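Section 3.1 - Work completed
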Amino acid sequence: MADTATKVYEIVVLGGNFGGLGATHYLLRHTIPSLQRTNKGSLFHITLVSPNRQAYFKIGSPRTLVQPNLLPEARLWKPLSEAFAQYPSDQVTVVQAVATGLSSHERTVTVTHRGPDASVASESMIPYDALLIATGTTAPSPLWTLHEDESLTSREFEAVQKALPTAKTILVAGGGPVGIETAGELASAYPSAEITLLSGGSGLLPRVRSKIGARAQSYLQDHFGVNVVHDLRVSSTSAGGPGTGPTEVTLSDGTTRPVDLYIDATGGVPNSQFLPPGWLDVTGRINTRDAHFRVQGDAGDGVYVLGDIVAGSNNTLFDLDAMVPTVCSAVAVDLAALLSPGAQPASRPGLLGIFFGGGGSASGVPAEKEFSPMRDTMLVPMGTGGGVGMVMGWQVPSWFVRMVKSKSYLIDMFDPVVAGSKWGKA
């Protein structure tokens, strides 16, 4: 049996946007240092697998799409290589690839590497002692989530922006925050255009109280004259496309309508195709077996999930921010058990807990950190003047939304996310 002091424990993180970035930084800044303090000579390495070379601030995409003079597209991108240059090169490696398979028995992830020529691909297997899945979801349009090649997103921005000045009729599909924000930005910047928003359900913002959705509808109608339509979905589109002429849209009631510009802002599909079906719920999201986001099914120990791909997640940044320390605390506890068999995890943080990723005890044994997100919180701007929202369940006025999010779409958060400084210690 190999000496544990010479073994390099491999942590694999799948996903290179907010979830994967946050987890990797937290592990490097807190979890690994805490384990190395109590297990002298232990070695750890993180492999971050991402199909993209850059992180994407998708929160700001509605503003950039419609009013790039206020939020240029260049500000939405940050190279992943810069994110981890601050750490020793033998601690973290970024691999540009897509996870395409997994063996929980062999404890390996199969990844596919694609070069400049997308038709040329190669596969490799990465072993793991701990696996964090943060692959998120993929929206139908590359405007809102990355589609492997980030150039697709840039090209879609360019096409829509070119079409907007001459578009007289615009149809936006999607009753969630992105659809509402996009409709609001469009109506604010192009008041002469006829804008229709299809919620796809019985109301807007279906994840929150109906009063908030009703306020969003009133805001769009009263401030901008947006036509909000419920209980209709887009079944198909034909011809057209941004800047290429009218698009014929077929709706779920069988009717058709031509529009100068169609923008799909409907929800995404979980990126879980490479995972065993027994790990997933009916929507394709990953089930967890405890409150610390260990994966259910035959995953075995040392497999975790965070972000939008978690079954039951509210798909908010507030949820994700709370998941990162919780998941990393579970990683710390489980790796500590491998390093020191028989040691019991602390039931709660002790006086020295601040020195340990996810909490700790005076004995140096990591403790699990509870998941405590900011509940019932959402801010939905509609143009630069304000919007609707709630904080901890309390409705907030439009001026609050304007001050917090409408002005800049939270772009100042991006640098600390990519650099990892939002997680403290380095």
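Second construct:
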Amino acid sequence: MANRAILVITHGEFGIEIIKSAEMIMGPQNNLRALALRPGESVDALREKANEIVEENEKNGLETILLVDLLGGSPSNVSLSLLCKYDLHILTGINMPMLIELLTFYQTVEETKNLIETVQGTGASGIHHLNRSFLKK
């Protein structure tokens, strides 16, 4: 069994709310936390909070996987800055299929590389364009 923790960092309450939605589907989860960059909050304050969580995870023997909303945004930049200090895995573009897949397998898949590749593929394949022609199938 793998020892991992998931940290979701997003603009606004998106990360907090997507976790609530995932837990509505899958039930309460262990080692799953979220941070929100709120209007008026400094990036330095967000970095400090993220650093504390990742440091706590390391002390508890947990590998951290970070999910962020947007590559190049402040949450991803904060996450990237933590790579200088910690051995992390960061996935950008969080969506519900990605989070559900990660929560399903993050404690059982031994190789983190395989887990990340699967979750990344699920996130991308979870995006569909639906219109009236979909109803005719």
